Each structure stands twice: as C-alpha cells, then as structure tokens.
Fold:
Amino acid sequence: MNYLVLLIPILFSIHQILVRKGSSEAETISGIYVSLIASTLIFIPSVQHPTLDRDFIILMSTAGVLHFFIARICFYHAISRIGANLSAPLSATRVFFAALIGIFVGEYLTIKIVIMSLLIFTGILLISRPKGKADTLGVTLGILTGFFSAISSYFVKFGNTIDYNPLFAIFLGFALSSILMTPIAIRRDLHNTKWYFAAGVVVGVAHLIRYVALKEVPVTVVEPITSSYPLFTLLLSAVFLRESEIFTARSIAGTMLILAGIYIYYA
Structure:
C-alpha cells in the first residue's frame, strides 16, 4: 500500500501536464467542463452505497464545489497563464491556509507554522517574478487554488463526523460541479479537449487512490507524499513542456522553499 501512495503525487503531476497541453488547443472553460465530466464518471459506482443524510450531503457538496469547481477554475486558468511548474507549488499553499484556518478555529500557533509561513511566502515571492516580470493574475489564481482547497478540507472534516463515505462524497462534489459548469460551458466549443478529458480521468484516479490509501496508511504519511507533487510537476514539465514552461533559478528555488515549508510542517 505504501508503494501505491507514491502514485498519488505522480498522477496529480501528470494531470497538471495534461492540463497545460490542453490549454494550447482548447478554451480553458471548455477544458474544465470536460475534465469534470471525466472525473465524475470515475466515481459513479459509489452511488451503490450512498449516504443520504441531509447534513452530510450539504457539507460534502459544499466541499466539492469549493475544491472541484471554484479551485479547479482557478487552477486551470493559472496553468494556462503561468504554466504547470509555477502553478503547482502555488496551489500547494493549501497546507499553509489549512494551518491558518486552524488557528482561527481554536488551534495553536506553533513554531512550525511560523517557519512554514516564512518559507512559503519567500517561495511565493520568488515564483511571482521568475523572470523579473510578474503575471499577478496567474499567481493570484494559483494561490486561490490553495485557499479554496484548504477551506474545502474543513467541510470534508465536518462531513466525516457524520459518516465516513469518501468515494460517495467525492462523487457528490464532482457531479454538482459538473452541473454548475454546464450552463457556463454548454455553448462553448468542446472540440480538441482530449487532453482535458485525460486530465480529468487521471486526477479522478489520483483522488480514488488517495482515499483508498487513507484507509490503511496514516494521514501523516499520505499528506506529505501527496504534497510532493510540485517536485514531480517540475521534473515532468522539464521533460515534456520544456519550451512552454518557465525554468529559472528563482522559480526552482521558490518551489523548493514552498516544499521545504510543507515538510517542516509535517515533520
């Protein structure tokens, strides 16, 4: 099972590479819609074992909309603007936001959180200007991805206290996000979205493996491994997207600092 966990960050990274490839051939909105449909299909079998509690459905649906609808819109647009290898570490700031939200709901500020914050903010500053010129909107969208993903996690936490049915919870999130996306994307050109469809399948499988792994492997093992995906994205984009991605000493150093902050938090 521990070896299976290693697939999670790799699949998340492949997902980001596919999104970047797709952004060169199709509209981002169309791509988001197609990827959501693909992700939803992965979890349809979960309807055989539904949780029909009203509060569970509300909490998990809200979590899904925040993560799969709002955060995905932010993330895919960030990738289309600043590339996969810059967007990935910015989205990984969800760990920082989760810790920050925890403080507001009664958890304690620790030295680990302070060090993590300093490292992540320094990393963001470096990534924001990898070549001396910032794409402020792209960077902001990458950070917002982490922010909305972190908020989503708290709704998942509350939902799990009612019933632990993660596969059905993910299905609710993807299905509702697809429904919300339909009126936005239905009149757009859905041709040339094969990369996005593949991305939706890959990230859906990644989420599936993550939740299967969490049944047997501690969160303290799964989350640090999962959070290593920016490193894999950096490596994969260097191999497959070398000409379209930004590779500078500043961007690489920024990625390493953000990862260092995340791992200090989990240490």
Remarks:
- The two ends are 21 Å apart (CA to CA).
- Residues 69 and 177 are 5 Å apart (CA to CA).
- The longest helix spans residues 54-82.
- The chain has a mean pLDDT of 91.
